[in-house]
Design goal:
With about 375 residues, the chain is an alpha/beta fold. It is about 40% helix and about 15% strand.
Amino acid sequence: METIYLDNASTTFPKPPEVTRAVVDYMTNSGANVNRGCYAAAYSVEEHLLETRQLICELFHGPDCRNVIFTKNVTESLNLLLKGYLHPGDHVLVSSMEHNAVMRPLVQMGVAFTRIPCDETGALCLDAMEECLKPNTRAVVMTHASNVCGTVMPLRRAGAFCRAHNLKFFADCAQTAGVLDIDMQAMKLDAVAFTGHKGLLGPQGTGGLVLSGEMARTLPPFLAGGTGSVSHTEQMPAFLPDKFEPGTPNLPGLMGLRAGLLFLQKTGLAAVRQHEMALTERFLRGLAPLEAAGAVRILGRHDTQNRTGVVSIQTPGRDEALTAAALEEHYGILTRVGLHCAPAAHKTLGSYPAGSIRFSFGWFNTPQQIDAALAALQEVCHGPETT
């Protein structure tokens, strides 16, 4: 039985072979640290790391590659950003589709927030943003695309709103980096938080921030420690990227991330998006008869407009967890079931507290795999529920 991996919104798999080779090559033939060795192997790693920053800066249309700050994932990036910029007593706007990587830091810090409503497809109600403002509103924090239903948020229009109201604008691009074009300048973004192991096709344990010039100057360091630079002082460096990157980074992972970025550059974002949308359209078209029969309920949009390759369904009359388990056990189809760390999104979509079964497609999925998943769903949804 072939294993069919349809959980790319969690982490993309498989990775391009170049990614694996880059990690193994570093661990086998180099292993040198950065900023801490005065020899050729260390300089080579530093050059590769610089190229990785340049590739990311180019991808996001950032201001300077030194403004690319590496972290271990988008959650750490958002914590660095939110806990550095906001304080108790501040107020922010978030969408009603946010992931807990945004919501839990805000709750932990005691920062007040207002959820900008979204409709039943997850689309942002832009006209409601004005009435959500308060005198102490300092920023808008928004996912670029829902990890539950794939709906894409209108970052350009939201960015224009932020600029008009003198608000900072932060985007969680966990689901869109490497899939959609993200232009910090055009979207008026002050910070982009990204992860390396999803659309960028890199290993887990990689991620980062791209900061505007002003944010890079004014944001305080989240961590402090050795950087290998200005070691004569016990103060953190004020220059980038050292200001935000104490300690040894995940160099094997970042070498793999570099390879993933080079693969994307060669392949092209347009080709990636076209492929994923073709698979999504095929899947949605195949789900239509099942939905008409009442066997499934599709969350969010039913078309390929303004979305990513993420489709969530419920199976009325059947426990979603049992359905997902049957797909794996009998057909080798791997999905994700539950609330996907986004309870607010499920409340917006009307799927709380049951959650959903999420199918998410990537570059290495095929039309044949989509057809196999549809055939399996057809059999499971019309068969007896098992425990």
